[in-house]
Amino acid sequence: xxxxxxxxxxxxxxxxxxxxxxxxxxxxxxxxxxxxxxxxxxxxxxxxxxxxxxxxxxxxxxxxxxxxxxxxxxxxxxxxxxxxxxxxxxxxxxxxxxxxxxxxxxxxxxxxxxxxxxxxxxxxxxxxxxxxxxxxxxxxxxxxxxxxxxxxxxxxxxxxxxxxxxxxxxxxxxxxxxxxxxxxxxxxxxxxxxxxxxxxxxxxxxxxxxxxxxxxxxxxxxxxxxxxxxxxxxxxxxxxxxxxxxxxxxxxxxxxxxxxxxxxxxxxxxxxxxxxxxxxxxxxxxxxxxxxxxxxxxxxxxxxxxxxxxxxxxxxxxxxxxxxxxxxxxxxxxxxxxxxxxxxxxxxxxxxxxxxxxxxxxxxxxxxxxxxxxxxxxxxxxxxxxxxxxxxxxxxxxxxxxxxxxxxxxxxxxxxxxxxxxxxxxxxxxxxxxxxxxxxxxxxxxxxxxxxxxxxxxxxxxxxxxxxxxxxxxxxxxxxxxxxxxxxxxxxxxxxxxxxxxxxxxxxxxxxxxx
Length: 515
Hints:
The chain is globular, with a radius of gyration of 23 Å. The chain is an alpha/beta fold. The chain has helices at residues 20-35, 67-84, 95-100, 103-107, 123-133, 178-182, 190-202, 227-235, 256-264, 281-287, 293-306, 325-338, 365-388, 407-410, 469-478, and strands at residues 11-16, 39-40, 55-60, 89-94, 113-115, 137-139, 160-164, 166-167, 186-187, 207-211, 243-247, 271-273, 311-318, 342-347, 394-400, 412-417, 422-426, 439-443, 446-447, 452-454, 463-466. It starts with 10 loop residues before the first strand and ends in a 37-residue tail after the last helix. A hairpin with a 4-residue loop joins strand 16 (412-417) and strand 17. The longest helix is centred in the last third of the chain and has 24 residues, at 365-388.
């Protein structure tokens, strides 16, 4: 099958690895390519869709050890397509590109463009330059020149959106390479953030997730340590915005005013991702995490005092250099005490360029694996117990398209509860069928370790559908267009950046500046 569609239409395919920041960056890459005249490969009907796009972009992550192996494996798989169609172009961006730079072209000389985390907006020009010069273009900026939200964006969802409030990180965790690749924290102006959210709501978005490497340190650049709580409260004033989430905060900077803002702002959801990393104070010190287990547990206690039904998730690292069995037991103890609804668990891997990579007492792989399996077992017990406690309760579900892998087999639909738990629910025969983006109220009939089942509708219990602007937006996308093609919202233009506001004393600051 040909790898091109026609001489007048060039297709693109953005492949994303890593965190939510990368997912949002990929939406911007798609927006840039659409604006430059490229067409999303997935938007073409199956019979007219080439096997490989004219431009394939890898948006990479550098956090895990196998990130490079995964990238070069994928690049190797594309080499035959490149040989068959020399006009095809391959671009590599993201954190691994920022880190490895020209090494990528040395190891994979069939790559056309390498760009970093600070110059996402350069991609179309770099593709044109590489095509004209018939040579690879490598451009890595050392610092961010314009905030990424100034760029056009092609969102994946009609009813849900990411909104970046800051980029970069001022912490120095010894296991993490992100600050070296993303740079120091840079904050957007509050009014600019709110303007973007209002524009999204006008397009039918009912749920937004505020993004930042350390989202709760927002305001550090313009000297307002209460800025994040104020921003949450301001989000509560936006008519039509039904759900607000944020990720990821840092325990060391998590203050009580944020907890109170969450509790007192109805559209801020009762879900919180709070990265623990380790339950051992000795390991936390070695990680250079500026909190200890007692402080961490105290935060969770204060959250649950004001938001009793909050679902709290976390990140955990097993096998950090020097971790003893006693240290690991400390992690298990804190996991049990924290009652996390779920956890993202990782085996420590050496990241060249980080202080931890040079530490003594690297833990043998087999020890790390055994501890990892024990941690998974404990967390699953905790998650399952928490989900069983929700049986019999009513939950409001924001319906998603195909989030449940077995939905077709079980004849259920899926979505997220307000606390972000995954819910699979049954639709009674002949009942109103919700669209993605609509809300459904159902009763939980079973709590499984990783999700909730809500079959109340077919068991004579509660089943109520509420149509939303998000559902309308999703339905509008399905009208017309090409059958069999993936349908996404139109490209949104970027929000202009006009710089950080003039610092003012916290006591005199308005709730959230609008300019």
